[in-house]
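Project standup — Tuesday

K.O.: blocked on the structure for the chain from last sprint. Re-posting the sequence here as requested.
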Amino acid sequence: MLREFFSVFSLPGRRRRPGDDVPQQVYGGLVTQSRHAAFYMRYGIADTVTGRFDMLCLHVFLLSHRLKRENDPQARDLGQNVFDCFVDDIDRALRELGIGDTTVPKRKKRLIRGFYAQIDAFAGPLDADDSVALAQAVGNRFFGDAASPDADLLGDYMLRASRALGALAGADLLAGRVEWPDPDHVL
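H.V.: unblocked you, prediction finished:
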């Protein structure tokens, strides 16, 4: 089932525009990381369309959060281009899942609002490096329980990912050289 879903959330064979290589490469890395089986087997994320979409949103958020700290027009452009890939992928995935043309914009809007809700919930605790507040936000968002042990695990991963992205040089980010921590490595 996992493989079937991610065939929906993958890089589309669309026409390429000049400068698409780096955003496509970065977005492809986000999709690949969000597919990691550990999230669904060890972290307690539901192996459902919603659970997998949430993991994709989480990684888009982590990258955009890092690019925002770069405070550079090229970083903003990269962040926007990756987000555009994400939105295009949502549209395509909804259509492949059989959602009708007239309903796609409404569903897409609702999914993107969910993405922005993640930003609201996670940005503050992540910036403060507050593992307790982040675990509570993760628990509420993904598990319906602020005290979920799986929330601690996913919150820890988010902090590790944020630190790993923070350690990357701006030039590496802009060149699409983004490395994610191994979710199998649990502290």
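K.O.: great, moving the ticket to review. The longest helix spans residues 73-96. Residues 1-16 have pLDDT under 50 and may be disordered.
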